Amino acid sequence: MDHVPPGVELRHLRGFLAVADELNFTQAAAVLRVGQPALTRTVRALEDALGTRLLERTTRRVALTEAGARLRDELAPLLSRVDGALRGAGSEPPLLRLGFTSLLPQACAELVHAFKAATGAGVRLVRGNEPLAGLLSGACDVAVVRGDVPSGAAVRTRVLLREPRVAVVARGAAELAGRRVVDWAELADVPLVVNTVTGTTSPELWPPERRPRLACTADNLDEWLEAVAAGHGVGIAPEPVARRHTHPALRRVRLKNAPPVTVRLAIPTRDAHPLAEQYVNRAPQFSDASSG
Question: Could you tell me the pTM of the whole model?
Answer without folding.
Answer: 0.70
